[in-house]
Here is the input.
Amino acid sequence: MTTGATGAPGERTWTTKVVPMIAKLLKERGVEVYTTDAFADKDNAVITKDWDLFLSVHYDADVYNDRGGFTDYPEPYTDYATKESQRIAKGIADYYFSKTGISQRPNRSNANTRFYYMWKALSTSTPCVLIECGVGWRKPEDYEILRDYDKITLILADSICRVLDIPIPSGNNDKCQKAVEKLEETLAGVRENRDMYRDKCKSQTAELNTLKSAVKKKDGVIAESTKQIVARDETITSLDGAFKEKEMEWKLERETYEKDKRNMILDLAAIKSENEALKKALKASGWKLVIAGMDKVLRDNEERIKKFLKRVFEKPEGGDEK
Here is the structure.
């Protein structure tokens, strides 16, 4: 069938390759085989004859997020040969899934497989079995196994022969079987190593995430410390500026103080000079003149002396003690 519902991605291409290969192996063993297509319900060669088995070959789409396959048979009340259908379905499943290593998932049986359109078209004596050989597009697992066409078709042919009691030839078949078994052992080892490396990767990923978390935490501490250092540098810079400004103010005040000191020394010298003049006046004019002269000197210098004492002992408004 090339239009409409053609199955899972790649399924039609896969089935049209494996079905003729299975038929060829069975014919080589003397089995009468007839292959048909999606229109088998209208194929007289199929629906007008009693067959020992009608087998519908499929694989599943990747809708389970997992691998695996299953066999199914018609809902019992629709199938007169249901006991044989169930026996063959179980026999094929037990052999096929154990030999391929594909997981068996019988719980995936559903209305589409239990009420498959071919069941009602076949004769009442024909056992009916449908096999979903695996999840055909599940990489690497089922995909790679299902593309080992020689192995898959041999296992399916052998499973059919086993349930129908058809002799399986020895010789080359034994060699193939041994090769299959060896490949299965190798595949089991590969899977074991894969699982081991997966566990190791999970462990290393967890350790890496822990380290990343620790680094992130350290980065946060470093960022906070850097922020504090920058703030301290800004404070120090600000204090340096304030100190320099105060130092300039103190320098100017010092210069003013030195200037006042020099002026006061000059004032004292002038007072001494005036005192000498008063002494001379004392000798010349007597006590009365001296007292009058002293009062005059005191009055003349009173304001200057007050200013002097104020500069020395009192605080200027808005300033520090000098």
Q: What stands out?
A: DSSP finds eight helices and three strands in the chain. The longest helix spans residues 172-285. The domain at 11-169 is CATH 3.40.630.40 (Aminopeptidase). The beta strands are 54-60, 70-72, 128-135.
